[in-house]
Amino acid sequence: MVRELVATDFWMLLEGLKWTALLSIxxxxxxxxxxxxxxxxxxxxxxxxxxxxxxxIEVFQGTPLLMQLFVVYYGVALVGLDVNAWVAxxxxxxxxxxxxxxxxxxxxxxxVPSGQTEASRALGLTYVHRMFDVVLPQAFRISxxxxxxxxxxxIKGTSLVAIIGFTExxxxxxxxxxxxxxPLLVFGLVGAMYFALCWPLSLLSDRLEKRMxxxx
Length: 216
What we know:
Layout: H1 7-42, H2 47-61, H3 65-75, H4 85-111, H5 114-122, H6 127-157, H7 169-180, H8 183-215
């Protein structure tokens, strides 16, 4: 029987929005740390780390995110580990984002003029100082628009964790829709919340991209 939305329904959607934002932050931060390592391996002068990083990126970019979540959530049980939906969602999204951020930042590193690296090497700077004091600050600035753009996609991608039972915004919408029999209204509100979360970031990405183009 159709019923009207009540205050508890809106509260549940807001709770789902909170978990969507928190999951996005965790996945982006964890993916950023691993992605930086992947980017450094991809630009290494040694073939073994380059190959490992290349295969890592190919696996996570070449397979659906939904399949990766299934593998983490159901696959780890085969080796005797028991993870809940929250941990599985965080691990799956972190691995997914690290592959994409690693490739984005690899492009940024390679876009830094080679003269910068040669000059820092001539000054006697070690590899760590060359990368973290000279190359990476410029690389992150170059890749910032693409990084923000990926964050927008990551936020929307968190909706897939509803499949493994994690109650974020989309899952909360499914539960409320099943209780109220008003899917158009409920998912209209869900879509509006995603839009409110992603639109400012999309504007920021466009503005950064234009600023970078003007700077070049």
